[in-house]
């Protein structure tokens, strides 16, 4: 089972950068126009995230193999990422706690936004399985990770005074029901 990060992809410094980037063309591969199409933005980000997580495991003390990685290590990684966050999360002691647009600066910490963490876990979960991992042993799908993401979402929602509404799916009309008549057709 090959669970090592893809060696063809260099680790990147812009781990949480989700801005679109033009594919770079360097070296001999740039001259062939019939090569495979460039990967999508999602695929590129997923590869960067996977390589960064692999680098994190390599730098972990003691170094960790992916096979020995658990949900607890994923949580440790997510907490490590908080130091690079750009989202102000007010503490309960802050006078701006619960205010979506605070009128002045405050000393509250910057953290990773819940949406960024949620998307990151989704990409890493997919990458784990694409790199030979079995779904039932996927540390990114661990219950502890799901609970942590829910807790982060709730804390950030309360700190900002804005709730995260789950997107409602449109239900197709069932066979027994008829859609309401259009206006003006009486």
UniProtKB/TrEMBL annotation:
GO terms for cellular component: nucleus. Its main location: nucleus. It comes from the Eukaryota. Residues 19-40 have a biased composition (Low complexity). Keywords: Developmental protein, DNA-binding, Nucleus, Transcription, Transcription regulation. Residues 1-47, 159-186 are annotated as: Disordered. Pfam families: ALOG_dom. InterPro entries: ALOG, ALOG_dom. Residues 41-168 form the ALOG domain. It is found in: Nucleus. One of its GO terms (biological process) is response to light stimulus. One of its GO terms (molecular function) is DNA binding. This is ALOG domain-containing protein. It comes from Apostasia shenzhenica.
């Amino acid at each position: 089972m090959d669970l090592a990060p893809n060696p063809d992809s260099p680790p990147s410094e812009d781990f949480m950068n989700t801005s679109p980037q033009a594919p770079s063309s360097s070296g001999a591969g740039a001259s062939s126009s019939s090569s495979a199409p460039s990967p999508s933005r999602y695929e590129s980000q997923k590869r960067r995230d996977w390589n960064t997580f692999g680098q994190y495991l390599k730098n972990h003390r003691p170094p960790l193999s992916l096979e020995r990685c658990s949900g607890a290590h994923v949580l440790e990684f997510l907490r490590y990422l908080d130091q690079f966050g750009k989202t102000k999360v007010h503490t309960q002691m802050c006078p701006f706690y619960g205010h979506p647009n605070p009128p002045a600066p405050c000393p509250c910490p910057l953290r990773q936004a819940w949406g960024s963490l949620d998307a990151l876990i989704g990409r890493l979960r997919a990458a784990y399985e694409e790199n030979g991992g079995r779904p039932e042993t996927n540390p990114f799908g661990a219950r502890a990770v799901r609970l942590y993401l829910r807790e982060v979402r709730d804390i950030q929602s309360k700190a900002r005074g804005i709730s995260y509404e789950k997107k409602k799916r449109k239900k197709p009309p069932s066979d027994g029901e008829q859609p309401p008549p259009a206006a003006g057709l009486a």
